[in-house]
Amino acid sequence: MKKEKNDLMEKIISLAKRRGFVFSSSEIYGGFAAVYDFGPYGVELANNIKKEWWKSMTQLRDDVVGLDSAIFMSPKIWEASGHVKGFSDPLTECRKCHTRLRLDSLIEEIGVLADEKMSDDEINQIFDANRDKIKCPNCGAQDFTSGKSFNLLVQSNLGSFTGDWTKDPVYLRGETCQGIYVNYKNVLDSTRVKIPFGIAQIGKAFRNEITARQFIFRTREFEQMELQYFIHPSQTNEVYNYWRDVRWQFYLDLGFKSENLKWHQHENLVFYAKEAYDIEYNFPFGFKELEGVHARGDYDLSCHGKASGQNFEYLDPKSGEKFIPNIVETSVGVGRTFLAVLCEAYHEENINGEERVFLSLPARLAPIKIAIFPLLKNKPELVSRAEEIYHHLRLKFRCEFDDNGNIGKRYRRQDEIGTPFCVTFDFDSLEDNMVTVRERDSGEQCRVKIEDLEKYFENKII
Ligand code: ATP
Question: Do residues 181 and 111 make contact, with C-beta atoms less than 8 angstroms apart?
């Protein structure tokens, strides 16, 4: 079973590269650990995922507004939020192969679950007490350096023109939500929002992750899609449960099988949290966190209120009550969703001894919605009419024109990038003004009038 799952991961990684979804960063220079680039189809898929999230979280709601805060922010923000002191993972290094490893992952291998509340010191003690049982997952050696805390914030020298900037660094943001908290008052004062309301943001975050495995599951540069929802403290339970339902449904709407999703409750909460659950996805390497849905109390606004000297109290216009809003947060990575979408969509089948691989992506997510082919490349009358259809349909849908190789080969290519429909203009089309439309998953084909194509696809691609 484990081998099958490893194989699946290998196949997905290989398809992602072969078909232009994901490339290792800086590959021609030997790569750059835990950083990836999205290729031509990858950027389309990632954009479609973000579009779905943005639409459901802002466009279709009256109570959520969007934001795009800068990646660079005052270092004071990261001090106030506790990241400069406490945003760390416990780290060790294998003395034999020099792989850096997270202690919490190592002790998990021997069945000890490090929870949110455990300090790096506590994890280190457990590690030390079990050194004889723990092996390096890379080379199998049992010789590790002593554990130490490793801060995950990525430092930079923006605006530091002289002197030793490492003493006074700025940070690339470690999470997008801090930009939301510090703009809470700006949004409140400049729009008509009233509590309860949310601010949504999609943007890059950076973390010096210690272990960089599992492809795009854990990367050092990644994008987050986050909602911070501001409420009266008495609304916490109701609002929290509501957002849990909404976020679960989001994945079902994207076509995820419910058996591939599960809730994981954080057993020991950090001191400020009221509730914390993660939605886990059944990745080939096991159920792992996809999204966090957390009730964070008033911790974030209180910290920034105190550190900045600003009054973050909300005055309820009806009751006249003043209070610091509590926050319910939903937070998910674009890359993790991307990987889950690929895992969910990857299919293999054997037709008459020939293997077919296809990505069964929902049309909304598919990088290319319709591929248009002339039956033969060397027949100008077919090529020009197919091009006409292509130029017309691409005004509405993301299309691709392909006249290379036999039709079977063109279908295989489109199957592997998850294109839901292929349209072929053949010799009969010259006579009857109809084309063959072939559906990806079933392979079924039907003839559709050229003049009806746009309507036909409007009904299918929603
Ligand atoms: P993990 O326990 O996997 O490190 P986390 O609990 O630190 O994740 P959060 O800080 O809650 O994650 O971030 C919210 C979401 O952002 C995660 O659920 C995940 O989807 C995404 N995310 C976090 N870190 C990374 C990363 N290094 N690479 C890709 N996505 C990430």
Answer: no
Helices (H) and strands (E) in the chain, counts: 15, 23
Q: Are residues 321 and 247 in the same domain?
A: yes
Check if 174 has its Cβ closer than 6 Å to any atom of ligand 1: no
| Whether 409 contacts 356, CB under 8 Å | no
Q: 95 CA to middle of ligand 1, Å?
A: 28
Rounded to two decimals, what is the model's pTM?
Answer: 0.92
Walk along the chain (462 residues) in steps of 10 and give the mean pLDDT of each run: 76 97 96 95 98 98 97 95 88 87 87 76 87 89 88 88 78 96 96 96 95 88 98 96 98 97 88 89 96 96 95 94 97 98 96 92 97 96 97 97 94 97 98 97 97 96 84
Under DSSP, the state recorded for 367 is S
Among the atoms of ligand 1, which is closest to the Cα of residue 292? 18
Nearest CA to ligand 1 atom 4: 218
Do residues 269 and 414 share a domain? no
| CATH code of the domain containing 48 | 3.30.930.10
Distance 272 CA to ligand 1 centre (A): 19
For residue 387, what are the contacts with CB-CB under 8 A and spacing of at least 6?
Answer: 374, 401
- CA gap 39, 16 in Å, rounded: 9
Q: Is residue 383 within 8 Å of 377, Cβ to Cβ? A: yes
If you measure from the C-alpha of residue 319 to the centroid of ligand 1, how many angstroms do you get, rounded to a whole number? 38
Q: 219 CA to middle of ligand 1, Å?
A: 9
219 CB less than 6 Å from ligand 1? yes
